[in-house]
Design goal:
Chain lengths: 188, 187
Amino acid sequence: MSMQIFTLREGDSLAWISAYPMLWEAGMMIARLRLAGDRFEQDREDIVSTGIQQLIRGLVEQKNDSFNQITSWDDCVRMLRHIVRQRTKDFLRSRERSREDAVEELPEMPQDFNAGYRFRLDELLPEVDRLQPDPPVPQVFRDRFIGGWSTDEIATRRGINRNTLLTYFAKGLRTLRERLACLEGGAS
Amino acid sequence: MNEHDLFRENADLLRAFEERPLSGGTKVPERVLFELEEARQKAVQSRKRPEQGSFIRRYSGPLRLAAMLVLLAAAAWLLLPANSPVARVVITSPGDVISDTRPRIAWTSKDKPGQKYDVWILPAEGDHLTAPALFVAKSVTSPVRFEQLQPGLGLDTSLQSGVDYRVLVCLADAGRTAGVPVPFTVK
């Protein structure tokens, strides 16, 4: 589903009503991973809500160059994701948490991140489910990266030691990277 | 093990989880929907409302341009030499008092060579713009013999002794406004 950007710019009520659920979903995906855990549920909602409000003002008022450069629905979603990432970071800073303490959010992209290549979820998820032979590994991956649980919450709810969980994540991510690299190599 | 470093090293992988395809099926909480609609309505009103601000703020661009033009005009008026009609055409003949009733009309100017002029001999009295011409010569160059002048209102073929006159020389077809009449007397 895609939206007509000019109807959003016009402030059309129906267009925005249709857009809200998708923007909400896109924003919450970012917020759940970077601000994981039940205790942040209200904060996540506030961050995403204010992020969408910022997007609305930028698109409709047309007073800001960054928003005026948006020409498609994909640009819209990309801008919202950027806003939510920044707002999440500001939120964590405002709580005076150091980077070491703020381990529940995902860090900045590394400098050498190649924006031209992006792992796709549809190739990633089957590989997550193949993370055997440790039975809980696929599930804890889904808990952490899709369900929005924090590492501590997963440890408590599933009765797994936190360090064991981190080992699962480290091994699992390494395995995913190797398998996806093989897929890429096989495809090229 | 440091979770922060672990996630940093795999940020590109984890971004795939962050930006997975949208289903559109997520329910937006009621209170959030209310906030979003309120923001949309305010944004629409803000866009439609005429720009607020003082007259100077709203028209600062044109005002700045106008001020600059005024300054340039003032500078030009101060710096450029005055270009009066008197300085362009200097009548050298007739002099102030003459005895010849059929004088030669001559002048000098800084105009381009070959420039044509109109010449009038007018009565001493009256506005030189509307005074009846006694003698006229159109599109001539200096000097002009008296025979080249055409009689105006009267049938005189020469000037009269003991009478005051004015001679006016202007650029051809520019009218009488482009010159300053010079008085002379025939004794």
